[in-house]
Amino acid sequence: MSTPNWLKLLAWAALIWNLLGVIAFAMHMMMTPEMIGKLPLDQQAAYSNVPIWSTVAFAIAVFGSTLGCIFLLAKNALATPTFALSLGAILIQQYYNFVVINSIELLGASAVFMPIFVILIAIALLYLGIKGKQQGWLR
Question: Less crowded by CB within 10 Å, the N or C end of the chain?
């Protein structure tokens, strides 16, 4: 079956979205103690004590989904397990944000919207990978 035209456009948009995630990860990794010191005290503690497992989950989430988009553009069925891995990493990272540091209490209810949006996009990309494999768009 031929690949629908919208798939390539969607894959490029998703790749750009995920590259923004890579930039956010890089900015997170480059935060200096001086930059952290300018944050409110309660946020300073959250940024200063991020466990390695949360940072690794963040890295797997953004780089995994970026790689998944590249696989999608290449019409490679490896997109599906790569998106699944990324979604799992996102959920682990959000566990840290919402349970361990309680980001809603720390940053307010608005801290919920972006993580929910990220999760929904990750689910949509995984669904697209599954559907693409079923429809024969991915080999």
Answer: N
Task: Single out the residue of 112, 111, 110, 115 nearest to residue 87, CA to CA.
Answer: 115
What's the Cα-to-Cα distance from 104 to each of 16, 53, 81, 114, 129, rounded to whole Å? 28, 21, 31, 12, 32
The rounded distance, in Å, linking the Cα atoms of 44 and 117 is: 25
Residue 77 per-residue DSSP state: T
Question: At which residue do the structure tokens 């988009």 appear?
Answer: 69
| Residue tagged 């307010």 (tokens) | 108
Tens digit of each residue's pLDDT (9 = 90 or more) over 79-100: 999 999 999 999 999 999 888 8
Please state the length of the chain. 139
Structure tokens at 25: 């990860």
Contact 66, 18 (CB under 8 A): yes
Indicate the range of 31-35, 87-91, 103-107, 114-118 predicted with least confidence: 103-107
45, 105 contact by CB (below 8 A): no
Identify whether the C-beta of residue 98 lies closer than 8 Å to the C-beta of residue 115.
yes
